[in-house]
Amino acid sequence: MTAHTNVDVDELIQILGQTQEHRQRVQEGATVTWLDDPLPQQVSAVIQLGEIAQSGQCADPKVITALIEALNHPSQNWQLLSRAAQALGQSDDPRAFDALVEASGSGHWAVRREIPEALARLDGARAVEHLTKMLDDDDWAVRQAARQALG
């Protein structure tokens, strides 16, 4: 990694994995407060990984892999997932397109709302078919985002 990186990619990826640990502690009856919740750090980690992916200063494939995993994160927290969708849309990695297409059919509306712009940015011609399908989404904000992405 180069100039961007007083940030440790492995440390950011480790932060994304903290949800399982947190759930296990809750299930075991540990006293857990909102201060113990890893979500704020996870959202921050996704944002930083997205900035690294967008800058092109890190050729480490783990960055995009971590963002794709975050998009499919078991927490189903819309903030984390929507930030992951935004970050993937800013990357130039071809794996991002397929991950976003897969996520476009499920999940929280706020996550689906981020996907049309990301798909159009990554590969406008290839995105048309998927964006057209999104015009029939149950949520008006997703339909609007798809219309805007189609131009």
Structure commentary:
By secondary structure, the chain is mainly α. The protein has a single domain (9-150), classed as Leucine-rich Repeat Variant (Alpha Horseshoe). Helices cover 70% and strands 0% of the residues. The protein is built from eight helices and no strands. Helix 1 packs antiparallel against helix 3 (39-55). The longest helix has 26 residues, at 109-134. It starts with 8 loop residues before the first helix and ends with a helix. The relative contact order is 0.11.
Number of DSSP helical runs: 8
As residue ranges, the low-confidence spans are: 1-6
Largest sheet: none
Q: Based on Cα principal axes, name the global outline.
A: globular
What is the tally of beta strands?
0
Average pLDDT confidence is: 82
CATH topology: Leucine-rich Repeat Variant
The SS-based structural class is: mainly alpha
User: Cα-atom Rg, whole angstroms?
Assistant: 16 Å
In percent, how helical is the residue content?
A: over 70%
Range of strand content: under 5%
How many domains in all?
1
CATH architecture: Alpha Horseshoe
CATH superfamily membership, which one? Answer: Leucine-rich Repeat Variant
CATH level 1 class label:
Mainly Alpha
* Straight-line distance between termini: 37 Å
SSE order, one letter for each helix or strand? HHHHHHHH
